Amino acid sequence: MRASWRQGEPRGHRRRRTLVARGLTLAAGMAFLATSLARGQAPGAVVPNSECWKCHLELEGDERGPAHGFAEDIHAQNGLTCSDCHGGNPATDDVEQAKDKTFRGVPRGKDVVAVCARCHSDAAFMRRYNPALPVDQAEKYATSVHGQRLAGGDTKAAICISCHGVHGILPADRPRSLIYPRNLPATCNHCHGDAAYMAPYGIPTDQFAKYRASVHGVALLTRGDLGAPACNDCHGNHGAAPPGVEDLSRVCGLCHALNAELFAAGPHAAAFEAADLPQCEACHGNHAVAATGDSLIDARSGVCATCHAVDDAGGLAAVAMRATLDSLQLAYGQSVELLGQASQKGMEVGQATFELKEARQSLIEARTATHTITPARVRAAAAKGREITGRAIQAGRRALADYQFRRRGLGVATLALSLFAVVLYLRIRRTDAKSST
Amino acid sequence: MAGHPEGRPTPAPSRGLHGWLDARYQLEGLRGFLAEKSVPVTRHFFLYYFGGVALFLFIIQVLTGILLLLYYRAGSDASFESVRFIVSQVKFGWLVRSIHSWSANLMALSAFLHMFSVYFTRAYRPPRELSWVTGFLLLVLVMGFGFSGYLLPWNELAFFATKVGTDIVGVLPFIGHPLLVLLRGGDEVTGATLSRFFGIHVAVLPGLFTVVLALHLLMIQRQGMAEPVEWERTPGRRMPFFPHFMLRDLLLWVVVLNILAVLAVLFPWGLGQKADAFASAPAGIRPEWYFLFMFQTLKLLPARIAGIEGELLGVLGFGAAGLAWLLVPFFDRGADSGRGRSAMRLIGVAVVVYMIVFTVLGWVLA
């Protein structure tokens, strides 16, 4: 565990009970009370019913730390107080009496897990607060790399408070929580990105930098897409461990189910296993997984070239699959261009444009089918797209030809109407002239 | 056949089809009427044409409307698709729809110009008060055509514009909500609203319009076109209606038809996206341009004015203003003698400037 997470634990017994300070504390308490009543919450839910909290709130520096932020802590909100973790008597403002024989002080190292587990592993107890919350965190933690290292005496290993914080613990769905999906990578990086701290373990410390630039990182951290995976989605959270080579496709397959299924049915699954290659990672990488493109299966410069020559069976399959994808992509692009031009000219091509969505879907399916490494499967998936883009190109060309026809028609009609107008004008002049004579 | 009523020599009986019809329907009387009909020639002579242009565009509306009806199907799951079918699959369907849309707008413009030309020349003065009243009713019906027709393609913009437009009706006290439900066929704009608007657009309004238009034309034929007040002292020049004025009318109709063709081909009326009640409202919702000045005014009104809801006050204000405008011939007592010309002109200019400024604002700020 990092020392910094424990900063702010109480050490001294300095008490500065000035009348003014107590008045301020009372005012703060009343304010909390008023707020909680206004929100319809039980008064004890947000004003910790603890003399420890009141005294520590008056203190300064590190000793104020535990009290600061505790009011919004999920435990305080549920009516728990300092003594539930630290022991002692929270009902008295006398320090000596408060630190009675039940006082446990600050739990350290592996004791923290046990302190948290006292409640969090007790299903009957937890049911009173949040029946949906799992109660196997400590059990899973014991199987994790963190838990095993801690059990082996490594006090630097992450414990509960390393990830969840200490006195200001917020539920995971609160945007300010340390374990809120968008904050989680930074929380993990607090230790895993510290080269000096991680030096004894001999593992890289650039995961976060790579992740942040990856397709997953951009989706989660830049675009705010909470559906994108954070560290725990691949590594687990309480049972955190790096996935093994054989588990990798299952981990990625949690989200990319079809890709994993197609990969498992293709020739690469057995070949990778024999060569001890990590399944998805071998082509896509891990933390730095980039957005894929058709060039990925280029037989000369793509990932296929890592293992295959251009003219071997794998290289030829890559060439065939790439040709299918390029052909459909080209037809799709041409369709979009033609229909766009027609639409800009005011031609109605809504139906063809709508159908083109299915061609886009077909292209995605063909790209997904490359995981089978079977050109025939890729061609089959692309067939519908080719058919739709063929119709869309025809519709686009027809619309543009029709546009030209309309312009020519307009020219003829305008000319005819203008001639008629001239004839009428001459007739008016003649009629006027006849009348005046 | 009876002799000529004014004692002129009785013309020899015609032969052929004309003679056959004349024997039965006395066409000579009509010919005499046309031969004697004339129009006053003034310096505002060109203003007389806008009424004829509006009539010509109405005829185009009827013809193109009938053609559209051959393929149009009303319903939330059929309207958009049928209009798309018309503009993309039916031969010249795009042209028919585009002409229908453009001529509707040009007809509204012509009707407005016609109304203001009558106002500024004070042609509504006795005995033509009812010509003004029927003319104003025709303008209201044209706006009703526009409002009901706007929804028929069932596209996104029309859906939300109709929602906003019918919401405005709902602010009226007592009758607001029942009227809104009557218009929409429920509390929300749905397929039921579309069915009602379709019925109103193709049956109710055309029926009313035809009756009022017939009355309007009949009054004009009976009373002739208004002459300037000064002509009571010094009569001016007149022009025979047939063929002189009619040829000029025809020439302008050909020019308008040409403009309509250019607009319909070079700026075909777009179809947009199909209406989706669950989608968020698109940017730039606005009604047809001839409602914009009212729409923009209601948007700019404060939420409450003197304790009354601003929008309600605005709607009631427009109602009162419309009523006052309808009754202008009865208020303007000095019209026959030429008195109060400056005041009426000032009111007219203020109304025109207000409408133009708020229409432009509504267009720019939407």
Description:
The complex is a heterodimer of chains A (437) and B (366). With 437 residues, chain A is mainly alpha-helical. Among the domains of chain A are: 1-106, no CATH class; 313-436. Chain A has 22 helices and no strands. By secondary structure, chain B is mainly α. Chain B has a single domain (16-283), classed as Cytochrome Bc1 Complex, Chain C (Up-down Bundle). In chain B, the strands form 2 sheets. Chain B has a two-stranded antiparallel sheet. In chain B, a hairpin with a 2-residue loop joins strand 3 and strand 4 (308-309). In chain B, helix 4 (79-88) packs across helix 5 (93-120). The longest helix of chain B is centred in the middle third of the chain and has 33 residues, at 191-223. Chain B is globular and about 75 Å long. Mean pLDDT of chain B is 90; it is low at 1-6. The chains are: A mainly alpha (437), B mainly alpha (366). At the A-B interface, helix 22 of A face helix 4 and helix 10 of B.
